[in-house]
Task: structure prediction
Amino acid sequence: MSFLIPKQTLRTALAIGAVFFALAIVGGVTALLFGFKPSHALPSPKPVGSIRPSSSPLLSPSPHASASATPSVSRYEEGALIGVMIDNHPDARPQFGLVEAEIVYEALVEGGTTRLLAIYEQNRADSIGPVRSVRKYFLEWFSGHGRGVVSHVGGSFDAKELLPTLSLFDSGNEDRRYYSRSQDAASPHDVFTSTDNLRALITERAWQTEEWSNLAFKEETPGALDRESERILTFDFSSPPFQVRYTYDPMSNSWQRSQGGEVIKDALTNEPIMVKNVVLMMVGGRVMPENNLLLTMDTIGRGKARFYIDGKEIRGSWQKLGISDPLYFLNESGAPITMNRGNLWIEVIPTELESSIEFSSTSLPPFPPEADPP
Result:
């Protein structure tokens, strides 16, 4: 089945989809069009009340809890598995809370735009957002990480049907004590939360979260620490605002993320998004014209994957046996991929767009010789 709209119907489909999403209210679905205004920083949302993080143990620290890609990130003593749907419309960039996220999924939604699922377990994020609506396939990926809390503003009809059947807690945004609206951001890019707020909600509802890790870890083996080559990963989701670029930084042994031709930075800290581990998953799926052009993705089964760790590319596969089963990453021999401790970005690419992936190593000129002293 094709993930992409056939060329002969693409223009009509996008027009119909734009009208539908501009008018839809139920589920928080809104217009997603090309020709975006220049991206701009949103001010930090004001805190919602006096909310403190939970002090009760919710789960044991995860195996990936001992390291963060950003040294300045503060951490809770006890873990709590939280997933937040974050807007990636160019008008919502730069976002809040991505520097602190331990795992981030990026995947297409309607109209050629992408959306992010940011997962927090022990890292503290003072502001997260803009929070947007959830899709079914994001829930299926998140449920493989454990029994966690989903933070979102509405969702597609199939996501709303699936969510009550999963072992997840639905925070939604009905309880406004735990969400805020920024007066300086236009709707629908104006809803924000924080890990403190969501942990307070967990405590109030007496939710017992649980996280299980399916990841294997290793000691870091950085690439060459010289200027022999520049290593760059690029791929496309749709139009130029959603073209992604990762540039390897050998000094930090991480990848600097850019999208739409701009380095992506956190709106609160102004720190660039540096990623220890990047995964590209190729998945099948299709557009559903019978369901208002919603997308469906093949989250269960096995598919090709590429892994970018220590400045290198590794070919392999992903595997997920059931909705609530973990997502496994394997090399070409079938052995688990070992990650560096730190953050992980999982980029979910339609199989039709695999040809857009480019990983290059470009020779750089040597340092100029030092001038002789006078």
